[in-house]
């Protein structure tokens, strides 16, 4: 559903929102003076709209959390899938996980991005691309996240698609900081926003599909298979100077994992 002025009046208490409401709407807390303009015309899920209305009021944090727990319990009792509940681990249901990573030889220097896309227990699809001759690690990470979002948008799945990145910078840029920058006309205190155009287009895509996905931080170079495979693909993009994303052919994952990592 689309957020209207009437709906904003329904969820606001004394012209503001509480912490859990801000979290649902991806707003900073406490919200800015222009929070209502930031969310006007925004698309949200019906379940999130229900949560926002139930959370209305000056409530203690524990009370807010309990309201959400009760609502999720009702959904679960009625067999309704929701973004915040765990999805059943049944083999016949498709669960898509996308690991994305960036690499840079020198910083700045040659940069590339890689992805490992999992669907249930099948071998992951590996992609490498977005070679940049004079890039940075942050650019490579943002490019990888942007490509992961594109793939998620193009993928038809009944379940939430999970995207994993080891870059807190790219995750925070797109899911948190961008809202404050956007509210101030894409400016920030203390100087320029680096990689602004890349951040803007990635955030715009995130806004369009955020109800269909979740983005999680994963520790880099910690032996997590998907992250390690995405890392090898990012390095491959640099070595092969792959600009457009290409699929990497392999027989065994162990062979890919044995490739050089930066």
TrEMBL record:
GO terms for biological process: DNA replication, removal of RNA primer. It catalyses: Endonucleolytic cleavage to 5'-phosphomonoester. GO terms for molecular function: metal ion binding; nucleic acid binding; RNA-DNA hybrid ribonuclease activity. Its EC number is 3.1.26.4. It is an enzyme of class 3 (hydrolase). Signal peptide: none annotated. InterPro entries: RNase_H, RNaseH-like_sf, RNaseH_domain, RNaseH_sf. Keywords: Endonuclease, Hydrolase, Metal-binding, Nuclease. Residues 92-239 form the RNase H type-1 domain. SUPFAM superfamilies: Ribonuclease H-like. Coiled coil: none annotated. PROSITE patterns: RNASE_H_1 (PS50879). The keyword Nuclease applies. Belongs to the RNase H family. PANTHER family: RIBONUCLEASE H1. This is ribonuclease H.
């Amino acid at each position: 559903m689309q957020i209207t002025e009437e709906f904003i009046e329904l969820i606001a208490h004394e012209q503001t929102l509480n912490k859990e409401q801000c979290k649902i709407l991806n707003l900073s807390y406490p919200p800015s003076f222009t929070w209502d303009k930031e969310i006007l015309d925004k698309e949200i899920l019906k379940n999130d709209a229900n949560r926002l209305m139930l959370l209305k009021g000056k409530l203690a944090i524990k009370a807010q959390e309990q309201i959400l727990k009760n609502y999720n319990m009702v959904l679960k009792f009625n067999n309704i899938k929701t973004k915040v509940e765990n999805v059943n681990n049944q083999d016949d249901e498709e669960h898509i996980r996308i690991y994305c990573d960036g690499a840079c030889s020198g910083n700045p220097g040659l940069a590339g991005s890689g992805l490992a896309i999992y669907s249930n227990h099948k071998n992951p699809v590996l992609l490498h691309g977005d070679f940049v001759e004079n890039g940075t690690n942050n650019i490579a990470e943002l490019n990888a996240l942007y490509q992961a979002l594109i793939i998620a948008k193009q993928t038809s799945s009944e379940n939430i698609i999970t995207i994993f990145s080891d870059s807190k910078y790219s995750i925070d840029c797109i899911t948190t900081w961008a809202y404050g920058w956007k509210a101030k006309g894409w400016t920030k205190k203390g100087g320029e926003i680096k990689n602004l155009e890349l951040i803007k287009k990635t955030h715009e895509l995130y806004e369009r599909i955020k109800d269909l996905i979740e983005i999680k931080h994963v520790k880099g170079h910690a032996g997590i298979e998907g992250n390690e495979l995405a890392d090898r693909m990012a390095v491959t993009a640099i070595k092969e100077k792959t600009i457009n994303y290409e699929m990497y052919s392999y027989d065994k994952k162990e062979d890919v994992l044995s490739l050089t990592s930066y």
